[in-house]
Amino acid sequence: MLKLLGSMYQLLPEGYAAVHIRFGDFLQIDDCDEDVVKKAYQDVLNGLAVEQNVKNGTQVLVGNGNKEAKRCFEHHAKGRYPVTTINDIISDHPYIQDLVNDIHTDKNHVYLFLDIILLSVAEHIVFSHAGVNANTFQSQIKFRHNRRKKTKELMLASLTPTTTMKMMMMLKRKEKKELMYFKHTAQRVFVKC
Question: In this structure, which of 119, 129, 131, 172 has its CB flanked by the most CB atoms within 10 Å?
Answer without folding.
Answer: 119
